[in-house]
Amino acid sequence: MAYKRPVTKENPYKICFVCLGNICRSPTAEGVFQNLVNERGFGSYFYIDSAGTSAFHIGEKANSKSRKVALENGVELKSRARRFERSDLDEFDLILAMDSENFQNINDLDPKNSHSHKIKKMRDFDPSPGDGDVPDPYYGGLDGFQNVYDVVYRSCENLLDELEEKIKS
Ligand code: 4NP
């Protein structure tokens, strides 16, 4: 995994979760991962953000169904949608795309592949990765949002297990 420097409170590990609209999947991942690091006492070792590769929903709160499902699981989604920028490639240590389309959109901003070592997919960390994509729930019902939550939770737990090992070592 992209991890090339000591992680301290002064120099936290920076993760950006990325989907299309930045209102459903990536805000869920941002909120879940933030909750997990807080629960484990690592809050100050991480800087966690999310973004979308489209401009459709800039400035919006997370989708009401995403917020409802997250809140039922004790996670408050506080994000406002923003677009993923080329400068985010420099800014973050790890950039996690929710699906192949967004993985491609991010890589399109990096034509020389100088950041490809830190661009991964969320379900690379899912112990049951399915087809590798976190499915887009936007046009569907609440069950799709619950599925996103479950997939993202599993993947975030596993990701944090891996990062925690490195922070301790
Ligand atoms: P997200 O979901 O990428 O998980 O935030 C979507 C949100 C909006 C749209 C598509 C997906 N849209 O087409 O507007």
Protein described:
The relative contact order is 0.21. With 169 residues, the chain is of the alpha/beta class. The protein contains five helices and four strands. The chain has a four-stranded parallel β-sheet. The chain is 38% helix and 12% strand. The site of 4-nitrophenyl phosphate (4NP) has 12 residues, from loops.
List its salient traits:
169 residues, alpha/beta, Rossmann fold, binds 4-nitrophenyl phosphate
Structure in a nutshell:
By secondary structure, this protein is an alpha/beta fold. The chain has helices spanning 25-39, 64-72, 88-91, 100-108, 142-168; strands spanning 13-19, 46-52, 94-97, 119-121. It has one domain: Response regulator (Rossmann fold).
Bound small molecules, by name, code or SMILES, are: 4-nitrophenyl phosphate
* Apparent shape: globular
CATH topology: Rossmann fold
- Could you say what the CATH architecture is? 3-Layer(aba) Sandwich
**CATH homology superfamily:** Response regulator
Roughly what percent helix?
25-40%
Number of domains: 1
Low-confidence stretches: none
How far apart the termini lie comes to 14 Å
Describe the largest sheet: 4 strands, parallel
Q: Helix and strand string, N-terminal first?
A: EHEHHEHEH
Radius of gyration: 15 Å
Number of helices, counting only DSSP H or I runs of 4 residues or more: 5
How many β strands by DSSP?
4
How does the helix and strand content classify structurally? Answer: alpha/beta
Mean pLDDT across all amino acids: 95
Strand order of the largest sheet: 2-1-3-4
Q: Please state roughly what percent of the residues sit in beta strands, choosing from under 5%, 5-15%, 15-25%, 25-35%, 35-45% or over 45%.
A: 5-15%
At the first level of CATH, what is the class? Answer: Alpha Beta
